[in-house]
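Listing S7. Sequence submitted for prediction.
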Amino acid sequence: MPGRGFGLTTAETDRRVRLIERVFKVLDETPVIYPEWCRLVLSHSLMGVQVHDARIVTVMNQPAGSKSGAARARRKLRRRFGGYDCGWC
């Protein structure tokens, strides 16, 4: 499978996520991250690894000092890309 996903369309994934949200409580890092992440995924029809990358972008776009985990996300990006400092992460 390309991108190692489940091969679902964005619409089917959204439907399944809504079902899961009815059963489980979503725990937020900050109240804005989860809804913004969902908005990015749906508005850009992201699939596979792009969904994970959108999560990182959402966390990193939070204002400085918001305790959003942006520093942790930057460390993960550096590890993912072999310590390469891209200048923005």
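Caption to Listing S7: primary sequence and predicted structure tokens for the chain studied. The mean pLDDT is 75. Helices lie at 10-23, 33-43, 49-60, 70-80.
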